[in-house]
Design goal:
This protein is mainly beta and 150 residues long. The chain has one domain: Deoxyuridine 5'-Triphosphate Nucleotidohydrolase, Chain A. The protein is 3% helix and 35% strand. It has one helix and eleven strands; from the N terminus they run ββββββαβββββ. The longest helix has 4 residues, at 72-75. The radius of gyration is 19 Å and the shape is globular. 21% of the residues are buried.
Length: 150
């Protein structure tokens, strides 16, 4: 198990956690407050995208990054993370905002404190690119979309 450092940017922000010891995602919660600090709702209009703040920033351990992915409970209602997975680079220290898209045909309300997405931490291998004139040939070659029977 690794340790993810979390900084609350607002006292009412919720530190992400898993709901079981085998869950791979940490739940992200909406931080929706009025200017006076009272809990508020956000509307994600039908067929529209809206960023939802979480009020937290993170620091991934060296060699890891974070992915923001949809929750099945919202996705079954047509609301999902539009750029899933949203990549959070290990050197980013700003607030995590979740870009939700409502693919449904009616507005969807997000409540303050509601679980809106999952954060998954994963290792990565840094890469560099080297330009070449030829690539190794394969059976598939340049066959693209649907060429493997999908």
């Amino acid at each position: 198990m690794i340790e993810l450092k979390v900084r609350k940017l607002h006292p009412e922000a919720v530190v992400p956690k898993s709901w079981s010891d085998q869950a791979c995602g940490l739940d992200l919660h909406a931080l929706l407050l009025t200017d006076e600090g009272r809990p508020n709702n956000a509307i994600v209009s039908k067929q529209a995208t809206r960023p939802i703040p979480t009020g937290i920033a993170i620091e991934c351990p060296r060699g890891y990054y974070a992915m923001v992915v949809s929750r099945s409970g919202l996705a079954r209602n047509g609301v999902f993370v539009v750029n899933s997975p949203g990549i959070i680079d290990p050197d980013y220290r700003g607030e995590i905002q979740v870009l939700l898209y409502n693919g449904g045909y009616q507005a969807h309300y997000i409540r303050h404190g509601e679980r809106i997405a999952q954060l998954i931490i994963a290792p990565f291998v840094p890469a560099t690119c080297r330009e070449v004139q030829l690539l190794t040939e394969t059976v598939r070659g340049e066959a693209g979309f649907g060429s493997t029977g999908a």
